Structure formats: C-alpha cells, structure tokens
Amino acid sequence: MIVSHRWLKRHLPNLPEPRQVVAGLEQIGVEVAATKAWGENFAMVELVEVVARTPHPESDHLSLVDVRRGRGEVTRIVTGASNGFPGERLWYAPPGTTLPDGRTLSVRALRGIDSPGMLLSPEELGYQTAGGDLWVWDGPDPLGTTFLQVIGGPDTLYEVELTPNIAQYLQSVRHLARELGAIWHLPLAPAVAPFAYQDNPLAVVEAPERCPLYGLVGLKIKPGLVSPLWLQTLLLAMGHRIIHPAVDVTNFVLWDLGEPLHAFDQRRVNGPIRVRLAQPEESLTLLDGAVITLDSRDLVIADQDKALALAGIMGGIDSGVAPDTEEIWLECAHFSAPGIYQSFKKHGLMTDAAVHFGRGTDPLAVFEAPAVVTQILAEAGVLVEVQVSGVVGDLPTERLIPFNPARIRALLGVEWDDEKMRQALQGFGYAFLDTQVVVPRYRHDVESIYDLAEDVARFHGLDNIAPRLPYGVTGLARRSAAVQFEEEMRDVVASAGYHEVVTRTFANPAWAPLFSESEAASVRVTNPLREEESVLRQHILPSLLEVARYNRSRHDLAIRIFELGSVFAREAAQIQEGRELGVLLSLEPAASFPPREEATIYDLTGLADFLFSRLGLGGHREAMPNPPAYVHPGRVEALVVEGKTIGWVGELRPRIAQHYRVRRLGALVMQVDANLIRRVSQPGRPSRFPEVERDLSLVIPEAVPYQALVQAIDQLNIGVLQAMRPIDRYHGDFGTSLTVRLRFQSDQETLTDEQVDHEVGRILEQLAALDVKIRQ
After folding, report:
1. Known binding-site positions for Mg(2+)
2. All domains in the chain, ordered by first residue
3. What is the pTM for the complete model shown?
C-alpha cells in the first residue's frame, strides 16, 4: 500500500516530518518498506505568458509561439496546439525537464527551427482540464511560478507492508492518521457530518447475510467538468489515473476512508436495485471487457433485468459512468468479507475494492462516504443536486470484551497502572462500558484480551517494555504414550527392511470407486489447491500406491515402503481423525545383482507376527470372511487384538496392482487405536520365574486350519500359557503333521513338569474334538 505524506496531513494537520512518520508507523505495527519523493520532476515546469503567435514558415499545422518567462526573457517555441494565443498563460517545460511519462526534453529542430522544450497539455502532466490542447492557466500566480508550487510542493510516499490483522482496519489514510495522532497526542481534523439518508425504497437486499447494510444515493452532476486539482494530485501520487469526477471521488474515498464505492449511470439502470445471489450460469461483462460466468455463491448488484456488477469487486460495462453522464446512482455498502474474498479468488479479480471488502470495512463509512463525496463534488462545481437516497439494513452490534488490566500486565510483563491502559485503548478508539471494553466496529481483528494487550503495547511502544527472560517451573520433557507407541511401530517396521515415506493427507476423489470408499464419509477441503487434492484421505493405502506408481514410472525397483499417518472420515456432523499403519511390498524379484530372493506374502505375515511380538500386543492372524473388495479373497488374513479386528494383511487384486504398474502387490494395513496404545503404555512386569517350552507334533485333518487350533486352545483360558507358534509342517502317509511350540511361564512360581503335563493334557483333550491327535 502507498501512503502520501500530504494526504496524511489532511487528517493530521500537525503531522511531523517524514522521518518521525516512519518511526510512528513502525510503532503501530506498520512496516515501511521504502520511502520516495514525488513531484520533483514538476520543479522545472514554469508558468509563462504568450506574447506573440505566428505561423511556421515551413508547415501549415505548426506555429511559432513567443512566451515571456518569469525574469522577462522571451523564448520561442514550436507547437502544433490549436490554442496558446497572446495574453494566455501556459505551462512551459524547458530542456532538461523529465515528464511523468519518462521523456526528458531537449532542444529539438521542427521543420528547420529549434524548439527548446515544449508547452504542455494537461495530459502531458498527467492531469485533466476542460477544453483546449494546451493547459491555459487562469490562476492568480505570477509568471515564473513552478507547477510544483501550484500543487503544494513535493510529497513523500511511504510504501507500507500491512500484516493480515493490521490490514483488516488500517487500509485507509484516515485510520492510519487516527492511530498516529493517538500515539503522538495530536488532534485529528474534524470529520464531515454523517450523510442523512432518506426513507426511499431504492434497493432490495435479498441476501442480508452477505450484505448487512446497503445505501444508494442519486446525484445529478454537470458533464464536461474535471476533478479539483488537489484531488487529482493526491490520486496521481498514489498511482491512479484521472478518469471522471464521479469516478475520481470514489477512488479518493476508497483510500481516504477505506470504503469502496461504485457509481452507476442512472440511464442504464431499471430500478429498484436488487442485491441478490447470482443465478446459475449467469454472465456479466465487466468494466475491463472481460466476461465472467457466475454461480449461486456470487453476490451481484442487479436491476430488474440483469446483473449490473459483481458486488464489492467490479462493476459491469453496461451500467458504467460515461463522459456525458448527468445522473448517477452512488452505491455505499457494507459487505460480508468472507463472501467477497471467495468470489474474487474464484474469478481472479484482485481489485482494490475486492481487497478492502475481502479484509473487512467500517460499516459506519456507509454514512460517512456519501457526505465526503457530495462535499467534494459541490466544492468542485460538479454537483447539481442530491436527488434521492435510501438505506437498507442495520449496523452490526458492538462487541464487548471484559477489561482485565491484571491479565494485560501479566501478558506484557509490565507494572503499568489501570489508567495508563485505559488511555491506550481510548486513544485507539475503544470505549468503556462499566467493566467492559467496547470494540470499534471497524476493528474486525479484535476478539479477546490478547488483542487488547497488543494494542496497549503498540500505543505505548514496544521499546518501552523492558526485555525479561521468561521464568517458570522446569521439568523433564516427557513424550506421550501415543507418540512413543508410534515411534516404536516405525522402528519395528524399519528394522524389518522397509523404507518409511511421508505423503500428504489430501486425496483424489477419483480414488474412491477404486477402493470402495463412501462418498458420505469423505471430508472435502473447502479451498483445495487442485481437484486432485480436494478431499482428505479415508485410508492410507491409496497414498502408498501413488508412491509406488511414481517410483515405478521412473525406476523398475522393488517396492518396500511403509507410512504411519492420519486418515479422516465423517460420522454424522463430526469429522473423525484416526491413525493407520500401511505397508506395501511388491511380490516380485528385485532387479539387482546378485539377484535377491523373490518376496512373498509370507514376508508380510511374518512382519505382522513380528509387530505383535515386539510390541507386546498379543495379537494373532485369522481368516477374514469379508475382506475389502480390492484385496484377493483367498490371500488375506485379519489382524486381531483382544478379539477386535484392527487390520488385515494380504495380496491386492491383480487389477489394482496393474493399475499402479506392478504385477503383484502385498499390503499390510493396521489401525493404530487407543486400545493398542494402552497395552503398550501399561506393560506388565517381567516374570522372575523361568519359562518352559514344549513341542507338540499333531496330526490334523486337511480341513482344519491352524486358526481353529488357536481358537480352541484360547477357550481353555490357560493363564500360564504365554505363547504358541507353528515351527514345522510335514506331509506323510499318515496325513499332515503340524508341530507347534508352546511356551509356559508363571508370575507366581517355578512350574513343575507335572503342572506343564497337566496343561498339555487339557490341550490335547480339547483338540480331540477337532479330530486332532498326537503324532506317535
């Protein structure tokens, strides 16, 4: 944002010199990136008087104009202008003058006659006047007066950087001047009296939540006139073009009060005005000629026939002000900031008005802005009359925050008294109601006592707060059980030879059909960077598969990766976040020398058992009757802990693997829930007594799976049986033999052979029901 020193001085007559202004801006939290002088190129442009005008002897469209300068000398200049006759006073730029467009003048021969410099038109100085080619000056200034003197001398421009919270209310010259005046205890120039709206039904607000306050003023103006010189000077310094008095004054109010205005040509509006949401596929041709397609999320200003403007962002070309416009509708509104922000981001229209409304404006400016506009147009002789006006809506209620000076002192680390804090807050526009602080309506950034403490510090200056080291009770850092558990899981998987990856939690909605994900459970991102990342992932496996696809498209390498990350799902109106461990393994030989052994699904089942064993989960694998649709039904097992299925291990269907450019893929997916963490965070004490191992060679029928043996033994609830695992499988004439190793251990005593034999007998008796016998 560019701020003019001269403009600040309109509101703060006793404004100090620029160096102090820079220090003051930095005290109130505004960074000054750079300062530069403006207008110095006008110091050589001087006022002269025409004494003679003769035709050019070698041209029928050029003239020789003799002008008297300030010290009495006469200079002859060649010009092609249609005016500039004896007695008229003009602006003359001698050689060496640099014009606003960047040209530096010199002595130039025109049809054989030297012309030192040139006589200037308003446009060549960047200004507008009424009629004629050259700028005929009718002011009382003596000859030799420079143009810089006429416009009030040089100006200093401050290039300021506004942080997001400061920008919500300090995006106007008057608000900056108000805060500078507060910290320097300087009085502000009186503001104009608020505009008194009439009670006329000029507009209908159909979306009051998007437009809480809407004012409309009908003005009759004189065409062919231009804006006052002081107004043109301020706008040019800020980098604006001079267009039309009705447009120039709205640009002035935009930066002066922070209130964007818009002017409609009454001839092109079929009233009353409607402030409504756009219709689907409704189109609007903007002032810059661009055609945009609207939807029901866009707020528009419309008449009874069509949309006239994209509310708070840019007007339409069909209702714009023209040079011959004599009657205008002046729009003064307070729009809801989020709606404007979303619209200008969606359409890519970052106009000055959109930036102001998108950050939030002062609702009271709806009443101040028309008063400023009518005053300026009246002083310039442009305003004929105020025809009619009307306002719809109400001011938002003032917000209250409890005044807690002790808390502010604690936050700032100061011993200032209560009155010093009241002085700071009142200086920045706050009021007090008993023990409550009344927040100004334009301070959209203030929400709590922390914001009040920040304003107290800004008012008195952060340099006046002595630096102090924080103090408090120190203690040893302690990781939570959840973090510790997840780190242990990562360590176990990494120690088994798998590489950890970290992927984004955003997902592509196109993955949902492939993995049978529920559309109702998906969590959409409000403002996604791209459509491919417009939802949050419901499962971690698709993210790993995308990593596999990326790597296989660049290197033909075996995939051995894992990730432990967040997954999301919507349950009713709530969004639930969970944690999942995902492991992906390509079931094919690696392209390496010497060749590595081909990976199999047993690598993953072994990893599952390894996890159970190392983490002390006491889990096991069992048949999975209803596996996910993207998993091979005959090559999958459920992972069960304490009777609860927490995941699965198996091989993906071939169509899924080929979709990600791999012939065969195995995966392990495990939910990391509170039950697992509790088991690890509260481990039992190791037993002081020795363990006993027994190997049983069993003859089992072909139809009996190993899982049936595990379930049958679990039903016995043998407290001293700590573990059971298969160690050998043999096929002979007698059938199938499976050798299992049983580990017994007690926390109370050393087990005897008789006690272990008793428990083994119970196990064999239980297995006999499955036609399982001991191998002889």
Report:
1. 445, 451, 454-455
2. 2-39+154-184 (3.30.56.10), 41-150 (2.40.50.140), 203-393 (3.50.40.10), 400-464 (3.30.56.10), 481-681 (3.30.930.10), 692-774 (3.30.70.380)
3. 0.66
